[in-house]
Amino acid sequence: MSRVNAASPPPRSVWDSLNPVRLIGELSETRYWMYLLLLPSALLITAVVLYPTVYGMQMSFTEMRLNRPAGNGAFVAFKHYQRMLTDPIFWVSLRNTAVWVTSSIALEFLVGLVAALALNRNLPGTKVLAVLILVPYFLPNVVAGHMWALMLDPRLGVINDVLVRIGWLEAYKAWFADPTTAMGAAIVVEVWHSFPFFTLLIMAGLKGIPSDLYKAADIDGAGPFAQLRLITLPMLKTIIAAAVILRVIGLVNSPDLLLILTSGGPGRSTQVLSLYAFQMAYKDFNFGYAGALSVVMFILLMGFAYIYIRLSKVNQD
Amino acid sequence: MATLSINGVRKSFGSLEVLKNIDLELEDGGFLVLLGPSGCGKSTLLSIIAGLEPSSGGDILIGDRNVNDVHPKDRNIAMVFQSYALYPTMPVRRNIGFGLEMRKVPQTERDAAVQKAAELLQIEHLLDRKPAQLSGGQRQRVAMGRAIVRDPDLFLFDEPLSNLDAKLRVEMRTEIKRLHDRLGTSVVYVTHDQVEAMTLGTKVAVMREGVIQQIADPQTIYERPANMFVAGFIGSPTMNFLAGTLEKDGETFVLRHGDGVLPLPGLAQDVGPYAGRKVVAGIRPESISAGNGPSTLSGKVDVVEPTGPDTMVIVSVGGQLITARLGSRDRPKLGETLTLAVNAVEVNLFDPESGNRI
Amino acid sequence: MAQTRSGSKLLWDLIAYAVLILLALVCVFPIIWTFLTSIKVEEDIVTRNMIYIPTRFTFDWYVRLWNQSGYPVLVMNSLITTSVTVLICLLTGTIASYSFSRFNFAGRTQLMLGYLVVRMFPAVLMIIPLFMVMRNFGLLDSSVGLAVAYTSFLLPLFVWMLKGFFDAAPKELESAARIDGSTRIGAMFRIVIPIARNGLVATCVFVAIAAWNEYLFALMLTTSQGSRTWPVGLQLMVGEFQLPWGMLAAGGIISIIPVIVLFALVQRVMVAGITAGAVKG
């Protein structure tokens, strides 16, 4: 086999010089290829996220009411924020948001953890059970809301029926119409819907814990609860933190479920910040105030994330 | 009273039989090594002794107590894992004292015991560190500290030195031996490294595919292996196997092999019934020296490997390759015909079909 | 007092089974009940005595729903929006994810974090300006416009999920391909993407399900039957028509069929990853 002459490559034809496929290929060898790859998505996100967000923050300092053509776009500095401080609905929403988020997340975490631990034992039939347990998370908010509204309906709700039959209730209850139970019922729906998120993440984390640790703990005499407390949970800390933060963001930011279930009622018992902001925009067309409310939500979220991360890092030493 | 008795223990995973009828006994204060290649079942047996896995049949007795269904924490054993299995979120101090903590031993007693164990292993200065901040050897010591501090009836080691580099391995091996001499507690030690087995054990059980091939003290296993597998597993470089026919030449037996005849005076085995039959002669490289003698082999030199203290020479004898351990000064040339003297007293004869020692 | 090891294992196994079966029932029951409702006759739904196992069935609700209020149009709109969303994410997100996974460049961590932080912005904050921006571009009330809006929160998710899958593909293969003469982009398309194909499919399915289910943005950014998606349509029907439960249930079931199908596709990837054994040692 003769040795190929590794001298100069054959001269290029005109077609070759213009061939787009080859040009892109050569482009991919440049130093800036990695940035080029990011360009389309970065542009998209800037246009669709950053720009509107900045615009929205800007709006929070202006008077912008879509149903009052006059005086729109006028700069009013902190007027909206001042109004918030004396707005009783704002404070009720804030309190409700706290209740809504903390209760939901606590319960989602507990149920998700228990499910993850049970699934992790890898008993026969686990695969089927896992699929069934994960389903609620992938259902649309709209449908999940209506499914539960159907089951809790004051006239024909099956849950009401069961509770009456076993004697826990005297008569069918209008769960979402009673201010004392509306929030609780909504939390039940939310936990049902989102606990698989925790299960998924925790199971991924459980796989990373070496099985030898549990064997050593068995020999050392640690019972199952001690093992959970001293081995499993500490090693899951980062994953739990990530899950909690993501879920908090999701719960604070989106009014979807409550919008479908209660619209903030009855009275103001389920009014949360995101709902309030949404209603300001969609019903009252007061974009300025809605913007201000959203900015406050955003600041609260950032603060929470920062504090939470600091707390868990401090413990890590 | 033996510390550990294993009677007729079997273990199957579904249809796969991993352990087939294991019987062994460990005397008080002894050091039993379970030696074998991966997959032979030694780690499974250890897990069964520890109580981490149930057996499929048979009895385990610790002391005179049948512990078949007893929880690991109630068997009064301690275990050192290959991966050390140190609790990553706890400082060394708590790692070592964890077993005592779980048994509700009061804090002051615990601290004293931890301190003592740490001193024994020279790790007092590490007590407040976390496992992630320790080197491999240090973690190893912490793992041993955790085992020692409970003063158990039985220590179980699962290939504890496999994750260490060569030099550290030798150091820790000596440490373990020193500890055993000092504490006198019985040990069951699993390894695939035959050097560890030979240096550490008072008794070695060589295992293969779930069956114990031979249990004896290290010297016996080395000098009189029960079958070809054990013979080939112990000793590095491995024993040479020379195939041939056993013949009687007057009062002595000789081996007729492809290239000639090898006299075998002073054979310790009773090989009368095998006269005229095919046998395999197991000759250790250490039994071969350069030069002449009553039993010799000769052949062409194939490979020469100087190792520093010795020279390994591979010679082709009638088509079969024989390794000889010669002195560092011996430097035969490739292709040269070499005459090697064999110390026939150390030779073992095996039945070629069963592999067993005759 | 020695506790038997086999006894305690059996106990915990039973407890685990009980928990799992109970949870599975709770998770699946609402769906089953809704399905039953959707095929029950009206009298059996609104009855004093709850009927648990219906003896007469009807598909009337489905028929009525399909013929009413242009439900098929809603479904079609959702289909289009979902497809366009996935397409946009595929085109722009795959290469971005690849860049994050394979290259180590200045500002990489910050950018990755940035992609994630944008999810922290409240939807309500963005929707209003988005509304106005889209109105100016004439993208309001269009499936494509909605799809673009969806990428605001789905694209970062796409990039992050896919990066995980890319990370799992060994880098040596591309190096080998490049030595063999391929360009970087050639290596990307010919080697890595086929290997990460499963992950790519799973990620696309995730995004598709999320886009199909989305309510809020669709509510604010579509204003007529033109491009309205099914969640908004269904919800409006509830308000407008005092929708009978049977029809609502039918609507729900129709809408989650694609989700169930997609979920069935992707669950094997997820559950397999979950139920594989733990790290030994």
Strand order of the largest sheet of chain B: 6-7-8-3-9-10
Output mean pLDDT of chain A. 83
Major beta-sheet overview of chain A: 2 strands, antiparallel
Number of helices of chain B: 8
Which parts of chain A are unreliable, with pLDDT below 50 for 5 consecutive residues or more? Answer: none
Instruction: State the order of secondary-structure elements of chain A, H for helix, E for strand.
Output: HHHEEHHHHHHHHHHHH
Q: How much helix, percentage-wise, in residues of chain A?
A: over 70%
Main beta sheet strand tally, sense and closure of chain B: 6 strands, mixed
Q: What's the end-to-end separation of chain A, in Å?
A: 65 Å
Largest interface: A-C, 100 and 98 residues
> What strand line-up does the widest sheet of chain A have?
1-2
The number of distinct β-strands of chain A equals 2
Q: Pairing-aware structural class of the strands and helices of chain B?
A: alpha+beta
Estimated radius of gyration of chain A:
27 Å
> SS-based structural class of chain A?
mainly alpha
Topology:
The complex is a heterotrimer of chains A (317), B (358) and C (281).
Chain A lengths: L13 H5 L1 H8 L5 H27 L2 E2 L10 E2 L3 H8 L1 H33 L5 H9 L6 H11 L6 H8 L13 H29 L3 H10 L3 H12 L1 H17 L2 H6 L11 H10 L4 H30 L1
Antiparallel strand pairs in A: 1-2
Chain B lengths: L3 E10 L2 E11 L4 E5 L6 H9 L6 E6 L2 E2 L10 E4 L11 H11 L4 H14 L15 H13 L5 E5 L7 H18 L2 E6 L2 H7 L2 E6 L2 E6 L1 H6 L4 H6 L6 E10 L2 E6 L2 E5 L13 E6 L4 E3 L5 E11 L3 E8 L2 E8 L9 E6 L5 E3 L8
Parallel strand pairs in B: 3-8, 3-9, 6-7, 7-8
Antiparallel strand pairs in B: 1-2, 1-4, 4-5, 9-10, 11-12, 11-14, 12-13, 14-20, 15-19, 16-17, 16-19, 17-18
Helix pairs in contact in B: 2-3, 2-4, 3-4
Chain C lengths: L4 H35 L2 H4 L14 H8 L3 H32 L5 H10 L5 H15 L5 H26 L3 H8 L4 H12 L1 H17 L2 H6 L8 H12 L3 H31 L6
Helix pairs in contact in C: 1-13, 3-13, 4-7, 4-10, 4-12, 7-10, 8-9, 10-13, 12-13
